[in-house]
Specification:
single chain; 131 residues; alpha/beta; three-stranded parallel beta sheet; 4 helices
Length: 131
Amino acid sequence: TADAAFMIEQLSLAAVGRELPSYVSWLSGPADEGDDGPEEFIVIVLDNGGFGTQRPMLDGPFNDVPFLAAEELVKAFGRGTGVRVDTEDEFAKALLAAVECDDLAIIRACVPLGRASAALTRLTDELAKRV
């Protein structure tokens, strides 16, 4: 896990020039053949094109973050499948395929720019009054 921690830190610094601004959970798997552990390991990356939670409150180029094609990481790991999805139907198909693949699967779900939940809109409308 020390190598993985170093790689995550370096990837985030290279991508956005700062420490990783999201939740990271350390899990093990998928297990190699004959080892204990889960057969599949599914990672879902939500890509909102930057700081999507801040954008409705105060928009500007500072919210744009260079994307990381997370689905391509399977090439570096030498195993699994990676896919980018742009629609709910594509996501559903990718998730079903990931469950059936019995290996590492990385799904990069791209959220359209400007898409926000009603709760986020209410929150950022109020916070925008203070900025």
